[in-house]
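Notebook, p. 212. Picked up where the previous page left off. The plan for this session was modest: take the two constructs that came back from the sequencing core last week, fold each one, and keep the raw output in the notebook itself so nobody has to go hunting through shared drives later. Recording the first one now, exactly as returned: residue sequence, then the structure token string.
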Amino acid sequence: MSDAPPIDAAPIDEALGGLSELAACDLRLAKRFCARIEACGDEDDGKAMDLARSYQRMARSYRQTLVVQARLRRELKAEAKADEVEAKAARQARTYNLKAAIRAEIRPRIWTMEREEERCDALDSLLDDLIGDAAARLDFLDRAPEAHVAAILADLDLDADAQDDEAAAQTPDDDEVEDEDEVPDATDPPGTTRAAAPPADDHASAGDAETASPDPDPPPRPPDPPPEPYIPPWERLRPGQTFPGGSGW
């Protein structure tokens, strides 16, 4: 058994080089047999026939070697093309996923309640353009998603908007300040607020603050008297009185 490795296990360059050398040997032997056939005389017909059969074998081997060499090159070319297509598809998938990740990270920062809808539409359209420009660069897949997000946020000026929104959120409104000043009393019914307490006097002593008592509640208001019953005027006449302008009733 031959110790030579199979063709598919040998390096591609060595396989092609070996086929080229084999084809050269077959061609050289075929030419040699052809020259010996031409040198034979008319009386050497038997020898010429043997040389012709050897020539045919070398010529057939040469053609087969060329066919194998051409087929190997076609297979290598097809395999390289398939690898290129697969690599291109994988790159497109990675590019699509990275663009989607960047868009999903930035879009919620654009569409906020504090920003007008027209401004959001303009920023959203600009976001697609910036992502497309970034994807067209050769180092798009080499950079981390966080780097792309930071660069696009800077181009959109969303960092400044975020700082303004944060400052506005930290600044209390006037209504909130008034609500904080109005402290509800535990005895008040729900939904009622007590007026803000007056500021403490800086000159008042701690003892006065401890001995001071709240003002007493006013006495309860007496109930209103019930209305008097209706009495006709003729029934209000005392004995001896007459109803004026009447018949005496």
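Okay, moving on. Second construct, recorded in the same format:
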Amino acid sequence: MAEAAIGVVSLGIQVCQGLLKYYGSWKDGRKDAAAMCSSVESLSATLAQLEQTLAGVSEVNTIINDSIEACRSSIEELEKKLSKVQSIADPGKLTTKIHDHGRRLLYPFRESTLVKLREIVTDIRSNLALAVDTTQLQTSLKISGQVRDLASFITDRDRDLESREIINWLSPLRFYECQVDTLSQQENGTGEWIFASSEFQDWVSGSKKTLWCWGQPGAGKTVLAYVPIRRLEKSAERIKARQ
């Protein structure tokens, strides 16, 4: 769906550029040509905006797609008009061959031709209006969602900071620092009785996969658990050094 819509929009941009290139040198001298070019420039800007929006999506909103598809026949008609005016002559070469009155008799410069081109362009812009409004609404909703997410993130962060402040006020202890301080005061051999226990031996041999350290709160489980952890760390360092 996106490829088809982008194809229509791209064709419209190419046709607009062709018309502006053909009539560009005359828009400053003739009001009807200037009015037509102004309409084409507005249409080209609208199509460029849609092309940029559609480039980043794989699926197109149904409303947007229908609005663009409604322009297909008008854009194709405008393309035929462009081909016809281009087949007449290069407008740059006409300046030295015929005067302004004579140019008005040629198909590209007839008032009826310029009016018809403006009518087609106006019809396309009218059909695209809903597509443009829808893309702008989608963009606004996306931005609104991002703002809500940012506001939620800031609120959650503030709550986390407040929670940390409350916890620090209730318990200002730094447990890591307390652990380091406690271990620094241990005598050599403290807790090493655990290595001779049957529970530890069974765990080392692999007959038991879990080594439980249980006890009442404040009994020193964390300090005791560090004893086998420290031995395992030193054992791993020795093995690594031999490799």
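Notes on construct two before I forget. The chain is about 75% helix and 0% strand.
Flagging for discussion at group meeting.
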